[in-house]
Amino acid sequence: MEHRLPATDRRRLLDLAADGEIATIADLVFWDNSSYPTEWRTGGPRIPFDRLPPPVGIVVIMSLYDNEIRNGGFEQFLYNHPSELFYLPGTLRLLGQPELASACLSAAHHAHATSQLPAWGGERPILTGPREVFDRYFATEQATLDGHPEPVPLHQVDTMYYRVADDIGRALGAFITQRIDDYTES
Fold first, then answer.
1. Less Cβ around it within 10 Å: N or C end of the chain?
2. In 3D, which of 173, 177, 175, 171 has the Cα closest to residue 10?
3. What is the rounded CA–CA span in Å between residue 30 and residue 59?
4. HSE-up of residue 184 (Cα within 13 Å, Cβ side)
């Protein structure tokens, strides 16, 4: 199924990309895009990122992250979107924020390792899934984690994000502009 926006939305998306407003970009590209199943866009089961075109996945990850940071912080992101942690660091690196990506990993790893967050097996546990899956994930990111000998507190991730939020919005806008044919028909 074709998920690109119609050519008539091309100018609108380019204008939104120039503004760098993550939420409005994501609304047009995904949340209000009826070519995606309703349950993906309305809080149904987890969004199957492996079935999204990668350029759209980048927008969706940044939308979820931006929204949760602004409404409750990184802890809330981990609580509401634990599976999306797998996609966040790579997306932040792509958008020119390797330090923030590293801090997110460090904070999530520390919270996971020290059980600071709600217990496993609860109604919506942090980092859902078999604990071994997350242990393996953090092991693959060990080099990044080694860059933070002292764990980054969850609240520090929020502070770091607010310092670079506008830069991330501009980088996302530039990414979309460079790849406009991935988002809209010609």
1. N
2. 177
3. 8
4. 17
**Contacting residues for 108 by C-beta, under 8 A, at least 6 apart:** 74, 78, 85, 127
Rounded Cα distance between 89 and 141, Å, is 10
Q: Could you tell me the pTM of the whole model?
A: 0.85
Tell me the sheet residues that pair with 5: 184
Q: pLDDT tens digits, residue range 65-109?
A: 999 999 999 988 887 777 788 889 889 999 999 999 989 988 887
Distance from C-alpha of 151 to C-alpha of 37, rounded to nearest angstrom = 39
* Identity at 108, one-letter amino acid code: A
Instruction: State how far the Cα of 80 lies from the Cα of 64, in Å rounded to an integer.
Output: 9
